[in-house]
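Lecture 7 notes: from sequence to structure.
We start with the chain below.
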Amino acid sequence: MLEEADLQERPKIRKKKIKFDELGVLGAVIILGALLSFGSPYFLTMTNLLRVGRQMAYIGILAVGMAFVIGSGQIDISCGRIITLVTFFSAWLINSVGVNPWLAFIAGILLGGLCGLLNGGLSLLLNVNPMIVTLGTQYLFWGLAIALSDSKPIVLSGDSSYYWLGQGELLGVPVPLAVFLICVLIGQIVLCRTCYGRHVLAVGSNAIASRYAGIRDRRVLLSTMVLMGLLAGLSAGVILAQFQAFDPNTGAFFEMNTIASAVIGGADLSGGYASVLGAMFGTVLIGVLNNGLILMGISAYWNKAVTGSVILIAVAVSAGFKASRK
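Predicted structure tokens for the same chain:
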């Protein structure tokens, strides 16, 4: 009975922590933006900010799913290569099979969900850490995409309203950014305001106690991995719509930026604590930093080093605040 009572209290306590972390990361974004505006006069122009929003949307969509995965006590390092496989599959359906692009887009999302199902299913079936499983499936998905495409790009031909998904605007906002914001809104509501979201965090906090409380922990764990796959499929569809081409390098290193975005936003890698809104701010922080360094003319090599340093500092500061509140 004590374990069940503790389990019910934990989500309430963690909501306060999430709010603190969200505001902290938002403050960091504002300060960083102000500093970068002095480095380049073009940084705060509307054209540049909308460009940043379009570019970071792909990682941001993944970060929404990663918040659920990390919150449940798991991790997925194959999401970038799910994007590689899905973009190939959808491009192949459109060019070689002649499938309507919108149908190919839906088929791609479903394929992403199947990849997530494979990740979660293998982890539970073999009782292996999801990080190990997704390390293997990462190479599986990438290998399939490269082998089936003969490591050659696929350029989409013809016109379709589908390309609006990646190239169009909605009330002056780039559609990829709008899709990202809609995912954030839905994800934040689900994670913070629904029983499913509370179950995700409860399982991540203490899987055994959640099982005694009547939560089907294995089903929750599997569902978060499927959700990650579906969102990777969605992100892949938006990428394909923008560039109208499949490239074997599409999705490379996406998983690292995705995990970094979620962790900067306050997600606890040990599970039980995550924020979709925080993951969004983490995505913005990384996107703004990358863009600002490019505008300032800093070498791409140093760009990576500076970005990595900022991520380490942000994670260290967040960990320090969490430790002080325990």
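Points to note: The beta strands are 154-155, 169-170, 173-174, 245-246. The first strand starts at residue 154 and ends at 155.
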